[in-house]
Amino acid sequence: MYSQEPNESKPFDQVETTFQKVAVNRTFAGLERDRSQLEYEEASVPQAAELEACNRVMLQRRDQLLEATARATNVLLTLENFDEAVNTALKIIGEETGCDRISILENIFAPPSQFPILYNFIYEWSISDFLRLTDRLESKCLPAEAIKREFLEQYFLKGEGFGGLLEEWEDPLRSSFAAACVQSAYSVPIRVNGQWWGILCFDYCRAPIQVSPAEVAVVRTLADCIGSAIQRNRIRQEREQVIQQRTADLEEYNRILLKRDQLLEATARATNVLLTLENIEEAINTALKIIGEGIGCDLVIVLENIFESSSPLPKCCNFIYEWAAPGFLSLTANFGLTSLPAEVLGFAFLEQYFLEGEGFGGLLDVWDEPLQGLLASVQVKSAYSVPIRVNGQWWGLLCLDYCRAPIQVNAAEIAVLMTIADCIGSAIQRDRTHKIILQAEQLRVAELVKANTALKHSLDILAAEPDLDCFIGHTLQLIAQQFDAPMVEYWHHLEQGEQAHVYLRYWQGQIFKANEIQQFSKQLAREVAQVSAPQGLIPFLDIPLSIGDATIGALSIYLPKYQTFSGQTLELAHALTQQLTLAIELSRLAEEAQQSALLQERTRMAREIHDTLAQTFGGILMQLQAATYFTNTQAEQAHTHLLTAQNLAREGLAEARRSIWTLYLEATEYEDPARTIAKFIDYTSSYQSISIRLTIDGVPYRLHPDLGLNLLRIAQEAITNALRHANAQTIQIYLSYSLQHIRLTICDDGCGFEPQSPTRGFGLLGMQQRADRIGANWHLVSQAGQGTTITITITNPTTP
Amino acid sequence: MVDPITPSQLSKTIRILVADDHPIVRQGLVAILNAQPDMNVVAEADNGRQAIEQFQAYEPDIAILDLQMPEVSGLEAIKAIRAVFPNAAIIMFSIYETDEDIYQGLRAGARAYLLKDTPCLEILEIIRTVSEGQRYVSTEIGTKLVARMERSNLSDREYEVLSLMAQGKSNKAIAKQLNIAENTVKFHVANIMLKLGASDRTHAVVNALHQGIIKL
Known about the structure:
Helix content of chain A: 55-70%
Radius of gyration of chain A: 68 Å
Helix content of chain B: 40-55%
CATH class of the largest domain in chain B: Alpha Beta
Largest sheet of chain B: 5 strands, parallel
Organism (chain B): Oscillatoriales cyanobacterium SpSt-418
Keywords (chain A): Kinase, Transferase, Two-component regulatory system
Order of helices and strands of chain B: HEHEHEHEHEHHHHHH
Number of strands of chain A: 22
GO molecular function (chain B): DNA binding
Protein name (chain B): Response regulator transcription factor
Keywords (chain B): DNA-binding, Phosphoprotein
Number of domains of chain A: 5
Oligomer: heterodimer
Strand order of the largest sheet of chain A: 3-2-1-6-5-4
CATH class of the largest domain in chain A: Alpha Beta
């Protein structure tokens, strides 16, 4: 029905066409029947003329009737106003047929009985007001008792009507008819959609006119038409009703949709506010206002559960956010309290509807006491609550109250309420997460500051405290403070073997060294036991001190059993441990470097002594031995040996002097022969009058101290030789640096000598040996009277 | 005073090679030796390499080799000569009386160990003793030798590490040079210290130098 359009006319036309067809068929059927009767009468009645006359009259009547019927049918089919149509049709029929009164009775049924309980006169036409049936009978209806059941069943329910002169009717109808001036009456049933609907009555009051069967048939046709018209009218009325209903429904739906739009808009706005506003207080308060105004309620409240112990049900619910429509007091102001104990709300109620359910609400009477009384006391007329869940946990309640009228909230509004509750839950969750992150960040910053301070402090100690043991002690103390640990130990890992032993122990503010731990072992053990017993001191953490894959030691932190600490503390401990490792390793390296430097220096000195003093003394001794040996036999030979010994002693002394001058140099100065040679020239020039010039070519760079020292010693030897033996006027020294080579050239303009001469000095040999030792090339050019040039070349001087 | 000439000395002149890098020491010694009627210095050498060459060229009865010589050390020269001439009679000649030198030299086949400050008569005595196919070890040298023999030997690797330690090289540098892990160097150093009875690496090197295990 809903699918049909109200203006569609086609079904009407079909119904009308059907009725017309029925009417016409009926009419022609009546005519056919009439015609066969007439043919029969013509055959049976001899007086043809009389019959013909009679026929003519009857045919005329029938034609009149048919015409009237057709007109009436037309009226019934065309006039919009049904009552007018029926009345007009009755009038047409009455006037054309010459009857005095036509009435229509409608059956009033009381199901399940198929017989009417009452017959209402609903339409009536009469030739004069005097004959109006309802006036005559002084009633607008006919009681059921007025017509016998058998009669009804025979003629109307199943039959096609009854009619005749007054005397043919039976009581009580006959007496009723008599009171209504009836002389003859004909009635046919009106059927609507196959069901007996009522009766069409023709009354003749002025004369007892008998109606022919043909005329009755026409009347039946009229009854059918009326039935059809009634049905059509009914259908139309039904349809109109449907359309009206549908329009009303649509209006209702539109209203609902409009409201839902408003709700959705309110929801969207509230959600948006909850999601975007940074300040959660402001966000929730704004959202409550939007919802209150959007739904049109008077109070919107958020209650937060206050939990106790591990129960999933709260011990009370606190009012934390409230919105009240203008002119209404907030609930807290009204109640004078800010918290509702769970007992008031009822544990079972809370569990059923909020912990596990999706809320509760309705008019005041659905609420149980004492809540009902409580709500009534603040003029709440209907109230709805849904749970707010945060991260899946029941967190609190969102409540709507209506105070002005007991408004029932529909499913859509409840859905909005739940959406908002979800959003509030999310907003709270977000706010909580935000706060936790913020707190964590603050905590982390604080920890970092703490860690930095501790590390800086530790570095300060390292800088100020050259003693490694003290530094380790400070570090132990720092770590103990960070962990609030009563005992921290530093275990030293021995290089050889796998043993480790406690090197230092921090115990309650004091540092004990390994020997002290041993010395006071019993006392310490007793103290530790005393402190440990109540707290349950356990070796909590070992942090190894590692360098590469080697472990040089470990820190052991002892803590009471249930003591906690943060991850940052642990990181700090690791950082301090690394610092400690670094300090220990640096000090070990420094010690090693110091030892290495010492060894280098010793080695150099030992070599110097060997090269100068020991060798010289060896030579002198041997010469003196020879001199002694030959004293008595070969005085001359002995004398030569003594002279050699003297010379050697002199050279040795000069060598020792230079050597001692060299040893006064700082170890690092050896690395820079350009400087040391220049220095030596200065020193020599201070007591020599000849010119010694140093020329440096290229950019000097640092050499291994051994190389530098030997270059210096060679230069010294060459200069000394030139001064002592060559009688030179000038000495030129060239020192040239390149990446691949370093070359030292000493040139003098002295007397020179034959290189092959066996008398060449012991000094030359020393020089040569030095050059050999440092892997340098030693080259001598000399000729008697031509001066001497010595060249020493070191290849790849920077390669160790 | 002239030493009386004995028939045995007449019968045989001891042919001698003297190798010493210090020409004045050598010259003094050669002068004394050549003054002996039963001795003749047939060859001289400045360094170990020359010493080996001269020995091969002259096959002397006695070779007096200085231990501290450039290019090839006295000890290496002894080994090289003994490898070719298993019966070569060699006298070690040194300024120093380090037990390691004594031990190593005698082990390599030297017949005597002579300090350069030995009185020359004693030197001549020893040369004659050795030329008769005997060994000569003085009481002092013998004591040193015993001390050395009581000590456990350093392994070759430990010797290498010790030499580098003496050059003042750090563990790291030693590890790099020997191409071994630093921890291994530490392990060797610990063992060296143990064997040399030293408390730290300086002490170890000083001890090693005293004992002549390493040379400068």
